[in-house]
TrEMBL record:
The lineage of its organism: Bacteria, Thermotogati, Synergistota, Synergistia, Synergistales. It is an enzyme of class 4 (lyase). Pathway: Carbohydrate biosynthesis; gluconeogenesis. Transmembrane segments: none annotated. InterPro entries: PEP_carboxykinase_ATP, PEP_carboxykinase_C, PEP_carboxykinase_N. Belongs to the phosphoenolpyruvate carboxykinase (ATP) family. Its EC number is 4.1.1.49. It catalyses: oxaloacetate + ATP = phosphoenolpyruvate + ADP + CO2. This is phosphoenolpyruvate carboxykinase (ATP).
């Protein structure tokens, strides 16, 4: 899907005060275009503070558009090690004044006047049926962000320029992102990520963590997808081909750090022929069911890896990691989150031996990852309405990937519908979309990758559960008398409703979910209101708990 480059006569959809303010500085005489990944690498390598890891050459550098002999580049962002949701402001939401933010934005643009600004372009979406062009403007000094952005999205080489030209034109504007990581404002001590979703533009100000740029750009691309017949997914998707010829496609949805990448990239001891679509961002066509990856590479955690891990062979850039000198005198990364939490790497698409940018096979199962201590390791949800409601009330814990406002408890259970804090369109769009998939025969599971009543659910157990489901040997039994819920009876992890403490905690969490659904009726002026059936599906579970004691 090609988008419209510029504000043109006859395309009223692009008329917006924020968009024209964001777009104008792209044409200033202080702007320099960076046309290739090779050039971006050179700029990042020479940017002050960058560490070139001389002992870590990039695997197949030239095949990725990088110079021969390119090394992994590391850049750390000081005290900032994660994204900050609290800094996001969305035009169109109540209490977000266009006048206030347009004025702040005009001043932010003026503040870049005496600096060199780089303009880079990429496409988000890797198939003729979904391709959005995106532009980033970023001041000199932040070449590592520029380079990461160009690696993370698809830079416009000959092949992709040609594909983009052939893709269908939709009445949507290209994405424009204006940024200044050095911006400061007393009203915004943690920075400002301002989005005008209907006009496909954003400003990322006073923020230096690359994840803000990645998720900021995706926010707009996912919004565009939702307006044009796609389900927007913050998740991983992989296909298993079983030895006897069957295949199984799973999509797994979870908040940052909950296990999307661990599950998506798991190799399952080579038991299956696996194809990976992506571990973080894709879209599914609502009508035809095919899936498209939005990004070529993987921006993932490095906590579980060292430089000798197989996965480290594919690293292109690193953040939030240490460096030391090897016996050979060369520089190597020190990983495993020793320096700080949320160590990150961009790994190339070559990490997945079989990687697809589009999968036509329909999805067999959706998995909502929740780190809710009252949930057993896996629950099967057999009713489409309840399945989509569980996704809409996805309850989990935050991780080190997020920068929280002072006073916010990092361990509190939070609701993040469909694990997508980047939604800029009504929640009901996702509710109906996922319910439709489930009603069409896709299975639905909830995976707990955290703790169950104080007992850790290890990755090994989660992967075994997935394998049992994929091989159709998982045995699910009705969960008490709850209609639409089944569990696998795993020793030591069977919920005990005779235990009053467990029963009360479980009921309290269902009540929290009911409250969350009710609050959507009024919060943000009812923008995220769900249909009454969602609340009803949860009330039925609560009634089921009362029946158990009654
Ligand atoms: N049961 C589990 N399933 C998946 N990951 C788990 C589990 N238990 C612990 N983990 C750990 O949680 C982290 C998940 O990180 P990651 O897969 O990168 O998340 P995401 O891709 O969702 O951001 C990894 O360090 C992984 O080892
Ligand atoms: C990109 C990020 O999210 P995720 O962990 O989902 O990849 C991030 O938090 O920086």
């Amino acid at each position: 899907m090609a988008t419209m480059g510029y504000y043109q006569a006859g395309f009223e959809g692009l008329r917006s005060r924020i968009r024209v303010t964001v777009e104008a500085p792209f044409y200033g005489n202080n702007v320099v275009s960076v046309g290739s990944l090779r050039e971006a690498y050179g700029l990042a390598k020479d940017s002050p503070g960058t560490v070139e890891l001389t002992g870590m050459p990039v695997f197949d550098a030239e095949r990725q558009g990088l110079p021969e002999g390119a090394n992994v580049l590391l850049f750390n962002d000081g005290g900032v090690v994660g994204r900050c949701a609290a800094a996001r402001r969305i035009i169109g939401e109540p209490n977000v004044s266009v006048e206030e933010y347009a004025s702040k934005l005009r001043e932010a643009v003026y503040g870049t006047r005496f600096r060199k600004l780089y303009h880079v372009q990429a496409v988000v979406g890797l198939d003729l049926d979904f391709m959005v062009k995106a532009h980033l403007l970023i001041p000199e000094g932040h070449e590592n962000i520029l380079y990461n952005w160009l690696l993370n999205f698809q830079y416009l080489n000959e092949r992709y320029s040609e594909m983009y030209r052939s893709s269908k034109l939709y009445p949507e504007g290209d994405i424009f992102v204006f940024s200044d990581p050095d911006w400061q404002h007393p009203d915004h001590p943690l920075g400002l990520a301002l989005f005008d979703p209907l006009h496909n533009c954003a400003a990322i100000l006073g923020m230096r963590y690359f994840g803000e740029f990645k998720k900021g750009t995706l926010t707009l691309a996912w919004g565009t997808a939702a307006r044009n017949g796609f389900l927007s997914c913050h998740g991983g998707l992989k296909r298993f081909r079983l030895p006897y010829g069957k295949s199984f496609v799973m999509a797994v949805f979870g908040l940052s750090g909950s296990g999307k990448s661990t599950i998506t990239h798991a190799k399952h001891n080579g038991k299956y022929d696996i194809t990976v679509l992506h571990d973080d961002a894709f879209v599914v066509n609502r009508e035809k069911g095919y899936s498209i990856a939005l990004e070529p590479t993987y921006f993932d955690k490095t906590q579980d890896y060292t430089i000798t891990s197989e996965a480290s062979k594919y690293i292109v850039t690193l953040q939030n990691n240490g460096v030391t000198v090897g016996e050979d005198g060369k520089l190597y990364a020190v990983m495993e989150d020793i320096r700080n939490g949320n160590g990150r790497a961009i790994r190339s698409r070559f990490w997945s031996p079989n990687r697809a940018d589009r999968l036509d096979d329909p999805i067999n199962a959706l998995f909502w990852i929740m780190r809710d201590p009252n949930l057993p390791p896996v629950v099967k949800v057999t009713d489409p309405c309840l399945g989509s409601t569980m996704g809409a009330t996805l309850a989990t814990r935050r991780t080190t990937a997020e920068r929280l406002l002072p006073g916010i408890d990092p361990n509190a259970l939070v609701f993040e519908p469909y694990a997508n804090p980047f939604r800029v369109y009504p929640l009901s769009v996702d509710y109906e979309g996922f319910k439709h998939l489930l009603a069409e025969g896709v299975d639905c599971y909830v995976l707990n990758t955290g703790e169950f009543m104080g007992k850790k659910i290890e990755s090994k157990m989660t992967l075994e559960i997935i394998e049992a489901i994929v091989e159709e040997r998982a045995h699910f039994v009705p969960w008490e008398d709850f209609s639409g819920l089944q569990i696998m009876e795993i020793e030591g992890f069977v919920p005990n409703f005779k235990d009053e403490n467990y029963r009360e905690q479980f009921a309290a969490r269902i009540k929290d979910r009911i409250k969350f659904v009710k609050d959507r009726d009024t919060e943000k002026g009812g923008f995220d209101k769900l249909p009454p059936e969602a609340g009803k599906a949860l009330e039925d579970i609560l009634q089921g708990i009362s029946n158990l004691v009654g």
